[in-house]
Amino acid sequence: MRQRHLLDAEEKEEVLRTICTVLAGFDEIEVGYVFGTFCRGDFGDVDVAILVTGEPAPYQAMR
């Protein structure tokens, strides 16, 4: 069975800040958002969707 996690609001904000910092390091990322069980309560993972602009070089697409 998958382990579930429960964070308080401050801990969740820290996770979100970290995700924002990482995504901000990529110029080609236009939009990123977090969804799924992380947003609703106890969670097993953090789902992040991104929208990229342009076409990255093949070696960058797998980075």
Task: Give your account of this protein's structure.
It is a single chain. The protein has 63 residues and is of the alpha+beta class. It has one domain. The protein has 3 helices and 2 strands, in the order H-E-H-E-H. The protein has helices spanning 9-24, 37-40, 58-61; strands at residues 29-35, 47-52. Strands 1-2 form a two-stranded antiparallel ribbon. The protein is elongated, with a radius of gyration of 14 Å. The termini are far apart. The model has no long low-confidence stretch (mean pLDDT 90).
Brief rundown of the structure:
This protein has helices at 9-24, 37-40, 58-61, and strands at residues 29-35, 47-52. It has 63 residues and is an alpha+beta fold.
Which structural traits does this protein have?
alpha+beta; 2 strands
Give the SSE string.
HEHEH
Number of DSSP E strands: 2
Q: How many domain regions?
A: 1
**Approximately how much beta-strand content do the residues carry?**
15-25%
How far the N terminus sits from the C terminus, by CA atoms, comes to 30 Å
Strand order, main sheet: write it out: 1-2
Low-confidence stretches: none
